[in-house]
Every structure is written in C-alpha cells, then in structure tokens.
C-alpha cells in the first residue's frame, strides 16, 4: 500500500471516529421504539413531534439560547476591550495581567461553579439564569481575550495610527477601523463561546434552580434511562449548530478569503 492510500485510510478512520457517534445519535432518533438500541425499527418522526410539543424542553431550549447569546456577547465585548488595552497600551505588569486573564482557562468548571455559588450565597444573589450567565462569562472571557489578542498585530496597529493621523478620534478608530479588521477573530470568539455556553452543564446545574438550561433538562431526562426522545433532542441541537457553522462559512469567512 502506498503512502497516499495510508493517508486516505487514516483520514477516513479519523472522520469515522468523530462522526460515527453523531450518525448513531441521528439514526436512532428516527427509531419507532422507545429505546435507542439495535435493531432499528422505523423510521418515524414521533420523537421529534414529542420534543417540539414538550413545553419544558422548549422553555429550556429558549433559556439556553438566551444565556449563550447574552454571555457570549458580554464575554466578547469585555475580551475585546481587555485585548485592545493590553495590545495597544504599555501598562505596568501587563504580562501578569495577561496571565491573570487567561488563568481561568486552566481551572475546572466544577471549581468555578462552586466558587461562584459560594460568592452568590454570601452576596444574597439567588440562583437563576442570570447567575448561570455570569458563570458562563467567567469561563468564556479568557477564551475570547486569547483569540482576539492573538489577532492584534503590527499591521492593524499601523492602520490605526494612519487613521489617527487623518484626524479620527479614538472611538472612531476602534469602531470603524479596529473592529472591522478584527471581525473574523471577534466572530470566531463569539461563536466558539456560544457553543461552549450552549453545551455547558456543570455551572448551569449549580447556579440555576427552577429555570434551567437544555443540558440540565436533558440530564433530568437521562436519570430515567435512555430514550429515543433524548436522541431527537441531541439531533436537533447538532443540526442547528451545523447549520450555523455552514452559514458562517458561506457568508462571512468564505467571502473574506482572497
């Protein structure tokens, strides 16, 4: 077997390893039986109908979307401001500041969630979607900062300096020069943070009570055992995420390539 055959074989094995669980999830979501196990019986759309008709699941889906979008926007704005300040201005101890901003990425979500739970109890802040959103900002801010900071090079700085020489104020330079140049990095940070927030369970479980996110609601369903209904939920979430990535590739990132 030649080298090209080995390369293709390795590529096929890698894709099978990544996508075979997803394919199994989607396939058994169409099974007519209640357990997502072989042999396959169907196909049927029964479980998708039950998911779309379940008010608790739809409410949890809305809560997850609200928390993901809100926390990701906040983390991106704060991450951009921190990256801009540390990249464009000489501050005392800037190396330590960068380290402190990135350090939460190395901390377990469980430790972050427990710490926030203690702080909220001390401050008298109740468990809610707002508390979960704050927790997701805490874990996503370092990621957004790292992605945006890594994109701030000398070329952008020279263009910003040229804009100032032409009379643009600082706010105008940031909004009309810096942000458009860094749009791919900002969008990448936003959607990656949104994906992590969408799937996050531990912090959402610790910081919510009555209004829960979709991962917490799915966990409560799994406590009663496997079901084709949970496969249908996972399939809808996966297809929605894949559609967003595809649209971004076609209409945003694809157009920026030369």
UniProtKB/TrEMBL annotation:
Residues 61-254 form the ABC transmembrane type-1 domain. It comes from Franzmannia qiaohouensis. Keywords: Cell membrane, Membrane, Transmembrane, Transmembrane helix, Transport. It is a multi-pass membrane protein. Its main location: membrane. It comes from the Bacteria. This is ABC transporter permease. It holds the Pfam family BPD_transp_1. The chain crosses the membrane at residues 12-30, 65-87, 99-123, 129-152, 173-198, 232-253. Belongs to the binding-protein-dependent transport system permease family. CysTW subfamily. The keyword Transport applies. It is found in: Cell membrane. InterPro entries: Bact_Polyamine_Transport (IPR051789), MetI-like (IPR000515), MetI-like_sf (IPR035906).
């Amino acid at each position: 077997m030649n080298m090209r055959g080995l390369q293709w074989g390795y590529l096929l094995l890698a894709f099978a390893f990544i996508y075979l669980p997803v394919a199994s999830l989607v396939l058994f979501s169409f099974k007519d039986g209640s357990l997502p196990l072989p042999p396959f019986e169907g196909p049927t759309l029964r479980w998708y109908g039950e998911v779309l008709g379940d008010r608790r699941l739809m409410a949890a889906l809305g809560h997850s979307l609200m928390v993901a979008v809100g926390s990701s926007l906040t983390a991106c704005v704060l991450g951009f401001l921190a990256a801009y300040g540390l990249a464009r201005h000489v501050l005392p101890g800037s190396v330590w500041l960068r380290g402190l901003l990135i350090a939460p990425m190395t901390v377990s979500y469980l430790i972050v969630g427990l710490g926030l739970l203690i702080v909220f109890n001390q401050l008298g802040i109740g468990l809610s979607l707002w508390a979960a959103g704050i927790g997701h900002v805490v874990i996503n801010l370092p990621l957004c900062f790292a992605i945006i900071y890594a994109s701030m090079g000398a070329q952008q700085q020279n263009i910003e300096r040229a804009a100032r020489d032409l009379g643009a104020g600082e706010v105008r330079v940031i909004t009309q020069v810096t942000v458009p140049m860094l749009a791919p990095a900002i969008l990448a940070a936003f959607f990656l943070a949104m994906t992590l927030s969408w799937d996050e369970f531990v912090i959402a479980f610790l910081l919510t009570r009555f209004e829960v996110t979709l991962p917490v609601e799915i966990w409560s369903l799994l406590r009663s055992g496997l079901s084709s209904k949970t496969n249908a939920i996972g399939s809808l979430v996966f297809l929605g995420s894949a559609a967003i990535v595809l649209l971004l590739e076609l209409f945003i990132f694809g157009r920026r390539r030369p």
